[in-house]
Design brief:
Length: 157
């Protein structure tokens, strides 16, 4: 295997990460469709690496959205502090349900994980709970979509 052949997998993994980051900020960029396409062309052994790359890329973007909601990164249209304090207390009392909600949003895409990411920051959901549930949810989601080409090949064979 020569040097150009070694770079191809690295470029594909890095491109997958970049597409997932972009998709995390720009919802019309669809990581799921990208993963279906790249997984159809990639060797079967590369698919888990692609799924992990997409998951980490999405969570990098969603972590930034969380920080926007938290106020660490500021956007002028996200200020509603008085209404939030009551909801924040309710969420602290139900932290296990919040993690489940984040997981469902990250894995199913409903409600949109983009909105949930910002809301979790605004409502001061613990970052560790947000990140863990989001990471696991996105991992499940992307593994499902990346497995579709292989499933299709097996059904058509």
């Amino acid at each position: 295997m020569d040097l150009p052949e070694l770079w191809v997998p690295v470029v594909v993994v890095l491109t997958t990460f970049a597409v997932a980051v972009l998709s995390g900020f720009v919802p019309v960029v669809n990581t799921e469709l990208y993963l279906i396409g790249v997984a159809a062309l990639a060797p079967l052994g590369a698919v888990p690496v692609l799924v992990l790359s997409a998951t980490l890329g999405q969570m990098a973007a969603k972590s930034a959205m969380y920080l926007v909601g938290r106020g660490a990164l500021t956007l002028p249209f996200l200020r509603r502090q008085q209404r939030l304090s009551r909801v924040q207390q309710q969420l602290r009392d139900r932290s296990d349900r919040v993690s489940l909600f984040v997981f469902v949003s990250a894995s199913l895409g409903f409600p949109p994980f983009y909105i949930v990411s910002v809301a979790c920051g605004m409502l001061e959901v613990a970052f560790s709970a947000f990140f863990t549930a989001g990471l696991l949810g996105r991992l499940v989601r992307f593994a499902f979509f990346a497995s579709l080409p292989q499933l299709g090949k097996e059904l058509l064979a």
